[in-house]
Amino acid sequence: MGSIITFDVLTFLIPEINIHTLVTIGSPLGLPVVISKIASEYRKISNGHTYMATPPGVLNNWFNLADIQDKVALNYKLNDDFSSNLLGISPIDFMIVNDYEINKNKNPHKSFGYLRAPEMSKILGDFIVQKKKNFANRLVNKLDQVLEDIKVQTEFVKDRLKI
To answer: For residue 151, with 0-12 CB atoms within 10 Å meaning exposed, 13-18 middle and 19 or more buried, which class applies?
Structure first.
């Protein structure tokens, strides 16, 4: 129920919180009983409208990973059920193979299987690289500002000394 709780918190309790990237794994958010509950909550806060959207604070991505054999994520296409938020972010669905097994018993809903899936590794790797690039860009921009300030101050001193 982690994705249901997360969705409720980000939509109804603290919609002003900003989240760079939301990842749901094996989510039941597409199940009819869950959709009807969410729709009834929307009716309460939005003058009878029942549309369901990506939480407003999701700023860049919502990735949804599901295995077709995961009974909890049976309706795995969240993009069909949730519209974009005001920033244009909507769920991007990934069908994966959750091959988690213990004592020869398969469990396609187990989080370990989702977390070690290649698709999850790519999402996480891209997120880390993007954060590093953002930091590097901010650092370069700051250095450019410092160099520009030095240049302006040098020109000021030259002008004052008439060099």
So the answer is: exposed
Encoding tokens for residue 7? 């969705």
The two three-digit tokens of residue 92, written as one number: 């991007």
pLDDT digit string (tens) for 4-24?
999 999 999 999 999 999 999
Q: Where are the alpha helices (DSSP H) in 67-117?
A: 111-115
Q: Give start and end residues of each alpha helix (H) in 91-117.
A: 111-115
pLDDT tens digits, one per residue of 78-106:
999 999 999 999 999 999 999 999 999 99
Measured in whole angstroms, the distance separating CA 94 from the mean position of its chain's CA atoms is 14
From residue 99, alpha-carbon distances to 34, 50, 91 in Å are 26, 36, 23
What six digits make up the tokens of 138? 């901010």
Q: Distance of alpha carbon 105 from its chain centroid, rounded? A: 31
CA-wise closest residue to 51 among 14, 11, 93: 11
